[in-house]
Every structure is written in C-alpha cells, then in structure tokens.
Amino acid sequence: MKFRLPILLSVVLLSAFGAYSAARAFDPPKSSSGSAPAKGTDAADAQEDAAKSEASKTDGKSKKSSNLSKSKKMSDPFNKLTPDEAYVLLKKGTEAREMGYTHTKSAGTYICKRCNAPLYNSTDKFESHCGWPSFDDEIKGAVKHQLETDGSKRIEIVCKNCGGHLGHVFDGEGYTAKNTRHCVNSISMKLIAEGKKLPDVIKANKDGDSAKAAEKKASVETPILKSGK
Predict the structure, then answer these.
(1) N or C: which end of the chain has fewer CB atoms below 10 A?
(2) Of residues 112, 115, 159, 183, which has the active-site annotation?
(3) Catalytic (active site) residue 183
(4) Assessment of whether the complete model's pTM goes beyond 0.90
C-alpha cells in the first residue's frame, strides 16, 4: 500500500494535466487587449468581410453622387434662371406688358439671358407702343424663326444657340422701312452697354441640350401673368 499510493497519485495528476492541455488546444486565442478576435480566426474573418462590405457601399454611394452631379452639369451648361425667366425662356411663356426694356433707349447689345449669345443691336430697336421691346432686325444668324405649334400660325422666334424662347415676329405692319417687328420679352434678354465687353457665349453640350429638353427640368414656381402679344 505504501508504494501504491504515490503511483495512484501520479496517475491522477497526469490525467488532470492531459485534460487541461486538451481544453487549451480547443480554446480560441484572444488578442492582447482581450476585446477582438485574433487574426486568422472565423470571427476575425467575418468582421473584416463586414468592414469591407460597408466600405464598398459607402464608396459606391459617393461615386453615384459624383456621377449625378457631373451629369447635371453636363446636361444644362447654361446660366441659371429664376423661375420667371424659366417660365418665358423654357416654357414659352409671356411676361406682362410694359416691363424691362420696353422703352429703353440706351446704346448697346441685347444678349440672350440663358446663353449670352448676342441677339439684337440697340440701333434696330424702335417704339411700337405694343407693350414689349420691338426690333426691326436681328444680329445675323442669331435668331431662329419657326411656326408656332399652338395652331395660331404665328412665327415664334428663339435663340438659335440655346433654343430659348424670345417672342414672335410680325411682318407687314409698316412701323419701319424694314416692315418687320420682333416682339421680344424683356426677361429673355440682357442689355450690355456700348463699350463694355460682351460675355462669352455658352455653347450647348454634345448631348444636344435644347430649350425643349430643359423645359422638362424647369421648375416654375411663380409664372408671370400671361398677356396677349
């Protein structure tokens, strides 16, 4: 018995040590801080994949926002318009009588409010007492004439560069020797005083942006009261 007791004690100790070693082998190692799983474990891999996925989503949103911003700039490169200006130039509206440049006699060049293209010289402006600025000539190649689509058979005039609505043209009234009257909305134009440098003309993008396309995007908040012209 004296010899068996130490042997039994040794067997018990060896068994306990073996069980402890086996438990340690299956216990996942922790990081030095004890808060995050060690690199190479399933938990660490899952955490890393989740972080990459979130970063990818954020990057995707950022690129999409940037592309939308670039697309918006490319689709309408022209001057920003007020709601009233958009109503006339893009929606083909008509401003009220006796506004803006109706009776202006200052020397200079009238340019398109939307794209800066020169449209009329002040020397061709005259008093017709119709309620809107009147010109008996245009700067060569600046204004496009087209039949009105509302069935009125009137001839609409638009800026040839950007397609912005200007007004209508009438012939045979006898106001001047040229016997023609361009009846133009003041709000469609801007007068650059004689002697001052004209601003650069803004050209349409390659995608062919026109007043018709921009009309769909125009936000009209306060339309001007329409009056016959």
Answers:
(1) N
(2) 183
(3) yes
(4) no
